[in-house]
């Protein structure tokens, strides 16, 4: 009994290694209590003090120590690593060993920016912490997509040979939010058909039947689907050849335009939704059009998912924009009354429209519940990590 009590008081360290950043959080999965969190940026960049991820971990230790958290004295239970791409290999969290690291590395062609960074972070952390390490994949929740949803209409051999298919991303968030929505509604997740809209810097939508993902808007890479802060989302695939032949852009330049210079930024000059909203209020035409395109594309996916699910119990908004922009939530619902989708203006605006707790924002008795449910990817990763090492 004492062992069990001790075990559940022990924190998990969650690490999210990006190409030039390392986000960390030290938390107890059972209670959600966070004892430390932070981010180290500009790793490996010119003029930065932090040369690589191993150095970043030393910086993290030192920062924590100066905040009064001595990592050597903390009875760490495990380290949970966010890994963006699990490819066709990983459909669940896994305990990390050398073979797993090699497999994650071998998936780098599918996520050239993300997976090498994750591997560097994992290797550095394994050197620092002699506890079990677990990899939690952003793609895993979408490994249940049926073949008709996950398969692109490409030559079979080509697709199979190179593992080209729809993988989906933000899965940890979609899974967490769909379960939290079930708790909010006091109903088993198995009974609910949900559409989850994760709207942050990156944006994705998913259709979830009974807790199982059947569709999502992102694809082989996180570029497909909704309009995002700096990513275009859906474009005509013929655009790539057009940009190469007519504009003379290289593959790398096309990649940069679509990933870093498009979306809200490309349309309006700003990628931060708060600034976009200010410009909309000021009557900036480009900002108004950017907002309208963002909502138009969102409706497009909601409509498609209504058709795929047949019956929808809940439409759920989450992440920075989803939790904080009453304007986006109202705009999505506008004109959908005939489909049973309505947002109560007062509920939507509660607390200035910014939600840090889950809440229903549709009117009482609506056929479709519209809700705001905060995501918490670190907590979700910590819980999955703890489940695996228990
Ligand atoms: P990430 O994908 O980096 O995790 P977040 O989920 O933190 O992103 O979302 C970031 C987005 O949320 C930004 O576009 C930001 O402007 C937007 N956002 C944050 N707070 C607000 C707010 N109060 N109103 C509108 N948008 C907000």
From TrEMBL:
CDD domains associated with the record: ASKHA_NBD_AcK_PK
Binding positions (Mg(2+)): 16, 377
Site, as annotated: Transition state stabilizer: 170, 231
GO cellular component, one term: cytoplasm
Pfam families: Acetate_kinase (PF00871)
Entry cofactors: Mg(2+); Mn(2+)
UniProt KW Chloroplast keyword: no
InterPro entries in alphabetical order: Ac/propionate_kinase, Aliphatic_acid_kin_short-chain, Aliphatic_acid_kinase_CS, ATPase_NBD
GO molecular function, one term: ATP binding
Residues at the active site: 138 (proton donor/acceptor)
Family the UniProt entry places it in: Belongs to the acetokinase family.
Name of the protein: Acetate kinase
């Amino acid at each position: 009994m004492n062992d069990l009590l001790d075990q559940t008081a022990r924190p998990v360290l969650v690490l999210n290694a990006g190409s030039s950043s390392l986000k960390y959080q030290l938390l107890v999965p059972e209670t959600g209590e966070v004892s430390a969190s932070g981010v180290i940026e500009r790793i490996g960049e010119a003029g930065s003090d932090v040369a690589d991820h191993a150095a970043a971990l030393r910086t993290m230790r030192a920062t924590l120590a100066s905040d009064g958290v001595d990592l050597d004295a903390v009875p760490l239970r495990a380290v949970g690593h966010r890994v963006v791409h699990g490819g066709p290999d990983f459909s669940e969290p896994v305990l990390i060993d050398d073979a797993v690291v090699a497999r994650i590395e071998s998936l780098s062609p599918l996520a050239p920016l993300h997976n090498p960074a994750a591997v560097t972070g994992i290797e550095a952390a394994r050197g620092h912490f002699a506890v079990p390490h677990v990899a939690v994949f952003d793609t895993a929740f979408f490994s249940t997509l049926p073949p008709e949803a996950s398969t692109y209409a490409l030559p079979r051999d080509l697709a199979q040979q190179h593992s080209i298919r729809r993988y989906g991303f933000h899965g940890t968030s979609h899974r967490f939010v769909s379960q939290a929505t079930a708790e909010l509604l006091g109903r088993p997740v198995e009974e609910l058909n949900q559409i989850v809209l994760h709207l942050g810097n990156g944006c994705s939508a998913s259709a979830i039947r009974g807790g199982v993902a059947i569709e999502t808007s992102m694809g082989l890479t996180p570029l497909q689907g909704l309009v995002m802060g700096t990513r275009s989302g859906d474009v005509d695939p013929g655009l790539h050849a057009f940009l190469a032949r007519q504009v003379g852009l290289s593959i790398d330049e096309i990649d940069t335009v679509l990933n870093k210079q498009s979306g809200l930024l490309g349309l309006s000059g700003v990628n931060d939704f708060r600034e976009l909203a200010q410009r909309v209020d000021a009557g900036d035409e480009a900002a108004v059009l950017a907002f309208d395109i963002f909502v138009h594309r969102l409706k497009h996916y909601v409509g498609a998912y209504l058709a795929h699910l047949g019956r929808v119990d809940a439409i759920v908004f989450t992440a920075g924009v989803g939790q904080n922009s009453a304007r986006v939530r109202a705009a999505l619902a506008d004109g959908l009354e005939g489909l049973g989708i309505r947002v109560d203006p007062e509920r939507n605006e509660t607390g200035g429209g910014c939600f840090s707790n889950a809440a229903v924002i549709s009117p009482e008795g609506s056929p479709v519940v519209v809700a705001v449910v905060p995501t918490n990817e670190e907590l979700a990763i910590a819980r999955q990590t703890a489940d695996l090492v228990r």
